[in-house]
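ESCALATION

Customer reports they have been waiting on this structure for their group meeting. Please prioritize. Original submission:
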Amino acid sequence: MHDRAATAPVREGSFMHLASRLTLPRLDSARRLLVLGVSLLLAAALLPALPGGSAQAARARAIAVPAAFFGMHDTDPTSWPQAAVGSVRLWDTGVTWKDIETSAGVYDWTRLDAQVAAARAHRAEITLVLGQTPLFHVAGTARQSCALAPSAFCSRLATGSANAPREAAWTAYVSAVAARYAGQIRNLQVWNEANVVGYWNGGAAAMARLTYLTRVAVGARMRILAPAMVARSGGVFFATYWKQKVAGRSMNSLVDAVSLSLYPSATGRPEDAMTLLAASRRVLKRAKVTKPVWNTEVNYGLSAGGVGSRPRAIGVDRQAAYVARTYLLNAANRVQRTFWYSWDVTPIANTHLTTNGVVAKPGRAYGVVRSWLVGHRLQGCAKARTGTYTCAIAGKGRVYWNPARTVTVRVARNVSSRTSLYGVKARLKGGSALKVDYRPVLVR
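Update from on-call: job pushed to the front of the queue and completed.
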């Protein structure tokens, strides 16, 4: 579909583009020029730093994207993904607490040792999730069983694993992890998706207590991540947890980062996940939480709890677009780590990086968008009234996409080429009209 607004002389992402959207009162010419001048100054202040503005201001607002920003899950990370992965989150890899402590006080580190060695060999930063509770360490007599959650979801857990543990047992386990892996594992995450009943049913106060015990046991040897929470299921638990105090200390003082699972609804897109991020940040602000945010799980098409019918299929080009848009938007919104779930997952999501063990187009897009961002400075992303996104990357160019329709963008006169999601480069004449759709394209 041809978008007339996008072919107008005003270019996407420009200050004039934003100013053209402002409604000015009926004034005489001199006053109208004055108001327009003020409007342009406001536009300059509100827009992200895009090329062509003050170089000093752009540098101040620009976001350096490290390799560790590109995180990944893999159910068998000893085989390692066929991609340049900057960080790995060890979850669903057979190394939870209940997998490691085989009987009271007896730890089997074999599998975790192998996974840590593989990650270190690939120079990937490691995040280990500390839960779930072994049955013999459940506090009290009540033990959650699969009867308390949908069977397809609960089948991934052992009876009692979502229960609060005895504090002494938790402290002993966390201390053993820190003693063995300090200097190897960089980050310890207190729990997985604590606001999902299938993973935790001990309440917000008990989870806050585990967070405190973790900090005391580990000290400054490792970074402590707050328990992951599903943003779309945030609700009362999320807000209550962050308002807790233990031994006079706030949750903000006990952790080094906030952890969110930024899955949108089953039909949601990467842009919808950013709406969830914004809502979560409002809750955090009210609780006076100032720590950086990590996106510790993301994919698309998942129904609540990962149960239900198989997700609605989408084409491989759209899958690849979702991957690229996910990392561009998370970086632009200053999310410090983004962990894709997962390199080899197929049944519960609709965006797959591999097919039968072979890297698929979305997996290739992961590597391409990584090459656009890592080692460069993202100067910002702007959304125009046409719905078109423009992300400026210093030293690389601009990335364009429109999630909902095909539009025409007039590129700058010094443009020389365009690069697709799959790394295919083609010549592009400066000042020409470029068709843009849901697939991000880099224009140099």
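Sent to customer with the following note: The CA atoms of residues 8 and 410 lie 8 Å apart.
Escalation resolved.
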